Amino acid sequence: MSVKNEDLNEVNTAANPNKITVSKGSKVDHTFSIAPMLDWTDRHCRYFYRVMSQHAVLYTEMVTTGAILFGKGDYLKFDKAEHPVVLQLGGSDASDMTKSAIKAQEYGYDEININVGCPSDRVQNGMFGACLMAKPELVADCVKAMQAKVDIPVTVKTRIGIDDSDDYAFLQSFVEQVADAGCEHFIVHARKAWLQGLSPKQNREVPPLNYPRVYQLKQEFPELQISINGGIETFEHVDEHLQHIDGVMLGRAVYQNPYMLAELDAKLFSCAQPILSRRQVVEAMYPYIERETAVSDTGYQTTAWHIARHMLGLFNGQPNARMWRRYLSENARKYPHGIEVFERAFAAMEG
């Protein structure tokens, strides 16, 4: 099997041709990560985030096993600059999950994360997401099968409960069974999910947050890596949570105000590198934008809008932030190739 990522170390399948053996090197530091967000954390968004932070762990949008195994597009493509990057996988068939995991490792992903947190009807109909909390043995089977074939870690993102199954004993039992199968890292959204009656958006807002429940999990399973997610918006919040657990995951707070990442490495990782200005962040994106929006003969064309849409919030809280958002929103499709629309947006802000 070929390995497409240049950063992977030695691959040796001679001893067991059915298993990819990869020298993993150091483990990923999950102190701070950015949540998988459907339609948002695509490869362009992740590259943009990496320009601002070298330490944040990046997650893909959820990709289903069906898309990976039977889809026509290249759903696993990413830039090597994105490392460390985690593929979030949607599915529940152990065989398909394992085949997808092997592909993910071939591409060079640092880890694979199983989605056991999304409550949408569409996801439930596919038998993955939060509904799998009711079937811990199925999740455990997937973890065990995947870890038997790949050497990169398989992790789980989940909720604190579902529907009326929302006491600590339910969460404790789920984690215990899945951990016994080989999962060593759980990312826990500190809300339960209602599988009926609430939209995905409402499920991010209506069920109350219960951070102590996640802290309790870490206390009972000190050998596991526990990260927390849900309602976390500032570095002050991040610091508070890190007193109790191993890692913090932010989602929409970062997407709406991405420039907070520019301070991340200095605040959490004591990096001495200078913090880029907002304009420097955009200019650092220029080579990527030029490369990605060059005229393609593959049948799919990346345009400036595919990238610019993730950058609309870069100037939030700054003078002329509205002009930046408005100009890119109205004009990025008119100038689909290269950096012209960004230079014009700067001119509009300054004029």
TrEMBL record:
It comes from the Bacteria. It is an enzyme of class 1 (oxidoreductase). Keywords: Flavoprotein, FMN, NADP, Nucleotide-binding, Oxidoreductase, RNA-binding, tRNA processing, tRNA-binding. The active site is at C118. Its cofactor is FMN. Its EC number is 1.3.1.91. FMN binds at P36, M37, L38, Q88, K157, H189, N229, G230, G231, G251, R252. GO terms for molecular function: flavin adenine dinucleotide binding; FMN binding; tRNA binding; tRNA-dihydrouridine20 synthase activity; tRNA-dihydrouridine20a synthase activity. SUPFAM superfamilies: FMN-linked oxidoreductases. The record marks N115, K201, R204, R322, R325 as: Interacts with tRNA. InterPro entries: Aldolase_TIM, DUS-like_FMN-bd, DUS_fam, DusA, tRNA_hU_synthase_CS. It catalyses: 5,6-dihydrouridine(20) in tRNA + NAD(+) = uridine(20) in tRNA + NADH + H(+); 5,6-dihydrouridine(20) in tRNA + NADP(+) = uridine(20) in tRNA + NADPH + H(+); 5,6-dihydrouridine(20a) in tRNA + NADP(+) = uridine(20a) in tRNA + NADPH + H(+); 5,6-dihydrouridine(20a) in tRNA + NAD(+) = uridine(20a) in tRNA + NADH + H(+). Catalyzes the synthesis of 5,6-dihydrouridine (D), a modified base found in the D-loop of most tRNAs, via the reduction of the C5-C6 double bond in target uridines. Specifically modifies U20 and U20a in tRNAs. Belongs to the dus family. PANTHER family: FMN-LINKED OXIDOREDUCTASES SUPERFAMILY PROTEIN (PTHR42907). This is tRNA-dihydrouridine(20/20a) synthase.
